[in-house]
Amino acid sequence: MDAVEEARAVLDRLERIDALRGADAPVGMLLAEVRSLLSEAETWVEADRPGERAERALERSRDALAAGERSAEDMLLPG
Questions:
Q1: Distance (Å, rounded) from C-alpha 18 to C-alpha 61?
Q2: Which of 33, 37, 61, 63 has the fewest CB atoms nearer than 10 Å to its CB?
């Protein structure tokens, strides 16, 4: 795929996530979509090489996903 197709995949994934959020989807389902989004965004960055700013944004997204996964695990564990 070229950079335009990769960008479209990221935008499509964002729309799916937004729809799931609006439908109050389970946390696990949202996290799976965010994981896929991160993977697609990494592919897009590799295809497009948009620069250091985009790579920093991607790194912040990875960090946020990791923090969200830890938070979701805490919510799902019986306490």
A1: 16
A2: 63
What does the DSSP assignment read for 24-72? T--HHHHHHHHHHHHHHHHHHHHHH---HHHHHHHHHHHHHHHHHHHHH
Task: Give the Cα separation of 31 and 49 in Å (integer).
Answer: 26
Beta-carbon count within 10 A of 6 CB: 19
Task: Pull the structure tokens for residue 24.
Answer: 């109050």
Q: What's the mean pLDDT in 45-52?
A: 74
Torsion of CA 54, 60, 62, 67, to 10 degrees: -170
Query: pLDDT higher for 35 or 69?
Result: 35
Maximal C-alpha separation, the chain: 47
DSSP designation for 77: S
